[in-house]
Specification:
aromatic amino acid biosynthesis; 5 helices; DHquinase_II_sf; 150 residues; lyase; DHquinase_II
Amino acid sequence: MTNTIYILNGPNLNRLGKREPHIYGHTTLAEVEALCRNTAGADVQIRFHQSNREYELIDWVHEATEEGAAGIIINPAAFTFTSIAILDALKQFDGPIIELHISNVHRREAIYHNSLVSKVATAVMAGLGPRGYATAVGAMQDLIAAKAQS
């Protein structure tokens, strides 16, 4: 197993800072990436990706699986509620998975309440805003350490 954490971001997250700032805030995805790297520290490799294309997210999950990555943090965005293909890819990953959402999806419209990804996620985080990514990185490091001790 490597010390690599994959952080995967789904559709429209490239628009962070511009898209519905009353929901998602003013922080850009580049700023989120820097926050994740700073939180992880020098000993952890971060693979940070964003795509509006479902197949690319699936390919990165496969890559994480093949490389023996330590963990996956995924904000699948709209694919959370629609993608059985991402769910199936995540089922193949042996490490911890954190599903992350910037907004509290449970306070939003009913269409956002049924996550397919939650079915395989080790943990789910929602509603902490962009700083939730730093919290997720710290939690992932704890999950990885706990798995290494077991």
